[in-house]
# Entry
Amino acid sequence: MAGRILDGKKIGAAIRADAGEAARDFAGGGRPPGLAVVLVGDDPASAIYVRGKVRASRKAGIRSETHRLPADATAEALGARLDALNEDSGVDGILLQLPLPRGLDAGKFLARIRPDKDVDGFHPVNVGRLASGAPGPRPCTPAGILEMFRRKGVEVAGRRAVVVGRSNIVGKPLALLLLHAHATVTICHSRTRDLAALCSQADILCAAVGRAGLLGADAIRPGAVVVDVGMNRIVDETRVRELFGDRSRRLTRFRRHGYTLVGDVDPRAMRERASRYTPVPGGVGPLTIATLLSNTVELARARRAAGNG
# Structure
């Protein structure tokens, strides 16, 4: 059995198109939705992510601005910048790019963003709203996964879902969203005993633990839907051969570039045993940015309805 790909690029493009239409409709009321991205330091990966988010926002008709602070920025400077954006009536969503430089407590500054401008859904108030099922912004990657399921007709209600990973960014909120969608959910993590045996019971298996190829064939029930959130950089050719084979295109690209990206699930096992699966790259990543755009527009609408925008 060869599984069908859940193409995040195509699904993400559709979500972005819908967000763009909603943004244009909102702009007809006087101004476009506004997104502010705060980048602290000079981490190359973070800079790439921010450029991608800003570019996608502008293409969708969302006014997007980047606020850069140096790596040695003080807590007071970062706090003051967030406070100013909280008070800016033209900003509907604030995104604090993580990770922050050492010495700056991410949790403290995420909580400093106003809940009604928290585009990532990480503020404690919005975490509580998610846990209770109340309306509010949802973390972009988990929300994008559920939207992918909806658009591609993946049945969630009544199915057994296993989430491997318990981060506040993906694992926990994804488990809650699956639970709200009436799945029976099990959360696994680094200390879970008999991990493969538990995973092999899943109708829907979601891996978000950050360990390359951790889950093999024995962890995938034949016919399961597999969502691989992992994005791991491999620079060892032996490991590439193990995961992709001696004659794979991925090995050829590895030799050309010196690295390749792989998820948390063995790619050959996932392709052979799953009924549907997300590839790495090109699976979950595009959904995250697309959902960021949707969240920004929804925050703008909510703020306008409350008389704040």
In short: The domain at 30-114 is CATH 3.40.50.10860 (Rossmann fold). The chain has twelve helices and eleven strands. The first helix runs from residue 8 to 27. The mean pLDDT is 95.
